[in-house]
Design goal:
By secondary structure, the protein is an alpha+beta fold. It has seven helices and 24 strands. The longest helix is centred in the middle third of the chain and has 39 residues. Helix 1 runs antiparallel to helix 2. The chain starts with a helix and ends with a helix. It comes from Lupinus luteus.
Length: 492
């Protein structure tokens, strides 16, 4: 039975709906899978499971049966092949005992070959015959119970109980003597039913073992670039309520050369599984501390810096162009090229609000003159930027877009005397709107990867703001069979 959709469940899970989580048990990225998501996962699992049974070969069955007036007949059933399964009813339930998936009223179609030979005192010369038959298994019940545990930041999957029960089957014989049909039904009904039950339960066990192996390959951290990793180790054990499955991950950014250490988590807080009345499959929630940790990591790495030494189609980075704004600059350095060294001076302040993410960015813009191959800093202007960031789901990433709210400028230092700050303010406004904010939006467009596995995608996602959390409520779609092929290749 293909286990892949259960793996999907584990990739979007969260803390228990509307429950309190104790300190050191909660991660900063979490989510919840709803009953709609559970139904989707269950249906996908059953569909993939059915696919894995097509052309499944059952063991050969041989029996010697006594036939009245005929004698002993040796009957062999071979090439017993399952052609397909149809499911009439299925369900998935979660609770303290685990995840229970049940299929009831299923039917299965099989084909087989038969042959027999008869010898008795009435028939001194042996008689034999062969042919084919079709089998219809009816009212089949299949079920399994799973549980999940956290083992040092990785999930371990346990198969607690599983089984298959066949209530009835019918055989349609092609060829053979008239008595043979009843012999097959009487003598082989139990054997065929038992073979079907054993084959299906074996597939279930193999599928869960493969899924457990897949879980061991889940990374504890994701390398984002040369600067940062994202800690995605699981926090605490999964929580199973009567309508959801819940898992949380650490979710904080760390420097590439930094060893992850336990974090201080917020002491009791509440997260709801509600999606604003929208019937979505999953809800992935991100605490504002995730964005703060990203801000701190990139700031400490010196990555929040931009040097502008030319502007496409413009020649304003020359002291001659600034002679009316900063005349003393032109007087000291006539007709020299310039560059702007834009540096974030402290980690940005980030806070989730009821409608977006508010941020304050502290920027130092150093004016450099380029003279005879030498870079000469001549003045530094500090800019305090207040902006809002609207989030959106792009593919499987959460991306943002900054909108400038207001800003303040002041002279931090100068080697060329006092500057006319009203003129500088107008210049900074132009620089913010045409250079700095577009550059930051270009970086934000890359986005933060959301916890979903390859081969699946968020669909019709919505963003909700519930300080200090933001949440992505979404359905999930399967992109194709390539993921299953990749995983099978990886584990083979």
């Amino acid at each position: 039975m293909a286990p892949f959709i259960v793996y999907v469940l584990l990739s979007h899970l969260s803390i228990q709906s509307s429950g309190y989580i104790q300190a050191n048990e909660e991660g900063f990225i979490s989510g919840v899978i709803t009953d709609k998501g559970l139904d989707y996962a269950k249906d996908f699992l059953i569909e993939e499971g059915i696919g894995s049974f097509v052309q499944l070969q059952l063991p050969e069955v041989e029996k010697s049966v006594k036939v009245p007036l005929v004698g002993n007949a040796k009957v062999v059933l071979s090439n017993i092949t399952m052609k397909g399964i149809e499911v009439n009813s299925s369900s998935v339930k979660t609770g303290e005992s685990g995840i229970v998936i049940a299929v009831s009223g299923a039917t299965a179609n099989l084909s087989m070959s038969w042959r027999y030979s008869v010898s008795s005192w009435l028939i001194p010369i042996g008689v034999s015959d062969s042919g084919t038959a079709t089998i219809k298994v009816e009212d089949m019940q299949v079920g399994l119970t799973l549980n999940l545990k956290n083992q040092e930041g990785t999930l371990k999957l346990f198969l607690l109980d599983y089984g298959c029960y066949v209530r009835d089957l019918s055989i349609e014989l092609e060829g053979g003597a008239s008595w043979l049909y009843q012999v097959l039904v009487d003598a082989f009904e139990g054997s065929i039913a038992s073979s079907v039950e054993k084959a299906i339960t074996k597939k279930i066990r193999e599928g869960i073992e493969k899924l457990d192996s897949l879980l061991q390959y889940l990374p504890k951290q994701i390398s984002l670039d040369r600067t940062a990793n994202l800690n995605v180790s699981f926090i605490g054990n999964p929580v199973l309520s009567n309508s959801s499955i819940a898992i949380a991950v650490n979710g904080l950014f760390t420097a590439r050369n930094e060893v992850s250490v336990p974090q201080a988590y917020p002491k009791e807080f509440v997260i709801s599984s509600a999606c604003g009345g929208l019937p979505k499959m999953i809800k992935v929630s991100i605490h504002e501390n995730v964005f703060k940790s990203a801000s701190l990591v990139y700031f400490n790495a010196g990555s929040m810096q931009l040097i502008i030494d030319e502007l496409q189609g413009k020649t304003i980075l020359n002291t001659a162009e600034w002679r009316f704004i900063v005349p003393q600059l032109y007087k000291s350095y006539p007709n020299d090229d310039m560059q702007l060294n834009i540096t974030v001076s402290s980690p940005p302040v980030i806070q989730v609000t009821n409608q977006d993410i508010g941020t304050t960015i502290f920027v130092d813009i150093t004016i450099d003159v380029l003279e005879d191959g030498e870079v000469i800093p001549v003045a530094c202007i500090s800019v305090d930027i207040s902006a809002s960031c609207a989030l959106e789901i792009v593919g499987n990433r959460i991306a943002g877009r900054l909108n400038l709210q207001k800003f303040y400028t002041y002279l931090k230092w100068s080697k060329i005397g006092k500057l006319h700050m009203k003129l500088i303010q107008a210049l900074m406004s132009s620089a913010l709107k045409t250079i700095i904010i577009p550059y930051l939006n270009f970086e934000l467009k890359r986005g933060l990867p959301l916890p979903i596995i390859d081969g699946f995608a968020f669909e019709k996602a919505n963003i909700l703001y519930a300080p200090p959390w933001i949440a992505a409520c979404s359905d999930v779609s399967f992109l194709g069979d390539y993921y299953l092929h990749q995983q099978a290749t990886h584990l083979s």
